[in-house]
Amino acid sequence: MKLKKILLITFSILSFSASATTLVDSVGIENSAGKKVILHKIEPKENYYALGRKYNVAPKAIMDFNSNAALSIGQIIKIPTDRPFAEQKPVSFNSSSNTTQNNGKRESTHVVQAKETLYSIASKYNMRVDDLRLLNNLKTSALSIGQTLKVLVNDEVSLKPEVVKNTQTGKPEVVREQITKPETKIKYLDSTDSNLGIEIPKNRYGITEKNEKGIAVWINDENLDATKSYALHKLAPVGTIVKITNPMTNRSVFAKVVGKYTENETTKDVIIVITKAASDALGALDKRFLVNITYGLPNEQ
Q1: What pLDDT, in 10s, does the model give residues 78-130?
Q2: How would DSSP label each residue in 237-301?
Q3: In this structure, what CATH number is given to the domain that contains residue 204?
Q4: 58, 66 Cβ separation under 8 angstroms
Q5: Boundaries of each LysM domain copy (predicted)?
Q6: Number of structural domains found in the chain
Q7: Do both 241 and 255 map to the same domain?
Q8: Which residue, of 175, 179, 234, 264, has the greatest Cβ tally within 10 A?
Q9: Does residue 247 register a pLDDT over 50?
């Protein structure tokens, strides 16, 4: 009987450890047919069997999902799971002030600890990995211990009712604070849904979602900070946050529209012009490459 208890406790500890580390080494997640798909960056000496043990997924399922591709260090591999995908709504950023409110959230800082990844930090603060990258102008997923990152945290709201004294009756009365939820402005699609053509109905949020597919080009311009994710677009108003996805690498980045571009030999037949930082984040191999973009336009009055 004692041996049974020991075996049961040992199995429970191992199961808890496996589940606790499931997403520690991941660099992000994706939505595949409503199921969560983990993105993992290959480390030295890792193979499909090691990934299967780490994420508690059958190695053959991982191999089939990735078309039995040969593994190389730094390669991003997709780990399929049976867990439902819970989508987080993106936020828009305003870098003009450290105390700027973003959809009811307040900007704060986080110091990177050992074994922390972009995904674990984003999960801790209920953020998207792409939003965390954009907020900190990160070109890669690499982090260093002690590095300071900007994060968005929910403002603390007191849920305790305030007790006041009624001046007429002299009896205490409870005044409950009304909490208003921030209005959702726009829903961005995940890269796996970029071809669904979903549009937010007019007059619902005051914004209509636009989806475009075409050629992007990155340029070096003295008027654009090449270290930040900026974009030029013909229709999107200045300040619009555009989601850009490279279907070849399945990487996405959020870029801020800072103006319009004029058509010339470089920008001929393109739908968007971006900085080198945004191009690097998308893993582009050429100066001109195919992209899918999603952004919001104010409804016509």
Answers
A1: 999 888 876 544 444 444 334 444 555 678 899 999 888 888 888 888 888 88
A2: PTT-EEEEEETTTTEEEEEEEEE----STTTTTEEEEE-HHHHHHTT-SSSEEEEEEEEEEEPP-
A3: 2.40.40.10
A4: no
A5: 108-151
A6: 3
A7: yes
A8: 234
A9: yes
Domain co-membership, 171 together with 229: no
The CB density around residue 226, as the number of other CB atoms within 10 Å, is: 16
30 pLDDT exceeds 50? yes
Looking at the structure, do residues 218 and 163 belong to the same domain, yes or no?
A: no
- Taken as a whole, the chain contains a residue count of 301
Q: How far apart are CA 79 and CA 173, in angstroms?
A: 55
Distance of CA 11 to the CA centre of its chain: 34
In a domain, 155, yes or no: yes
Residue 8 maps to a domain: no
Distance CA 90, CA 87 (A): 9
Domain membership of residue 4 (yes or no) is no
Q: What is the pLDDT of residues 44-61, one digit of tens each?
A: 888 988 888 888 889 999
Residue 60: which CATH number? 3.10.350.10
Considering the domain architecture, whether residues 166 and 100 belong to the same structural domain is answered as yes
